[in-house]
Specification:
Blueprint lengths: L2 H5 L6 H16 L7 H10 L3 H22 L1 H15 L9 H21 L3 H10 L3 H11 L7 H11 L8 H14 L10 H20 L9
Helix pairs in contact: 2-4, 3-4, 4-8, 5-6, 5-11, 6-11, 8-9
Amino acid sequence: MNYLAHGYRFLDDPLFLAGTAVPDWLSVVNRRVRVRRRLVEPVVAATQDDHLRRIGRGILQHHHDDDLFHRCEVFQRLEAEFSAAFRRHMPDRYDHRPAFLGHILVELLLDATLAERDPTLLNRFYAAMARVNAQLVEDAVNHMAARSTDQLAWFIERFRQERFLEDYANNTTLALRLNQVLKRVRLEPMSDQVMDVLEFARRRLHSTADLLLSAVESVQRPS
C-alpha cells in the first residue's frame, strides 16, 4: 500500500496518519533506518508520551495493513498481471524491473483511484499532514529505530510541498514518478512504450479497488 491508501481512514489524527507514512518515508530517506514491529511495539506499550504513542501506533497500522494487503489474492493477481505486461516490453529475463513495477504500480494506482473517487481527499490528506510537526516525527523515529536519521524532518517538508500523489492521476506524470523510483533503486528508466501498460493497469484498478481495500478496512487501529 502507498501513502493515501494507508492513511485515508485516519485524517482525524495527524500524528497517527504520519506514523502510517513513516516506513515509506524512511525507504526514501535511508533504507537502513527501519521501524520494525519488534522495535516499535515495546515503546508504544511503555511510553507515557502521547505523541510518541500515536506515531508508533500509526507505524504498527502500516505494518498490519501491508501484511494483509500483500497476502490478498487480488493484489497478487494484479501484481502478476502487471508484471507480465511490463515483461512484454522488457523481455530480458534478468531485468528486475517488471516484477518491481508490477508491485508498486498496484499501490500507486490504488491511491489514484481513491483520489478520483473523492476529489476532496488529497486536499484533506495534505491538510492533515500540514498539522504534523516534522521534527517531532523524526525524534520519535530515532527513539524507536536501531539507527538514527537527521533527514526525515527535511523529507516530510518536501513531501508536503511537492504533493506528488497528485501526479498519479495522469499516466504521463505517473510514468515520470515511476522513473524517479527506478532511478532511486538504481534501475534503468522505462521507455514510452509502457504507456499502454499504465492505461491497462489503471482500468484494472478501477474495477478491483473495492476488493483490495476490503482486505484492510476491517482492521482496527492497534491499541
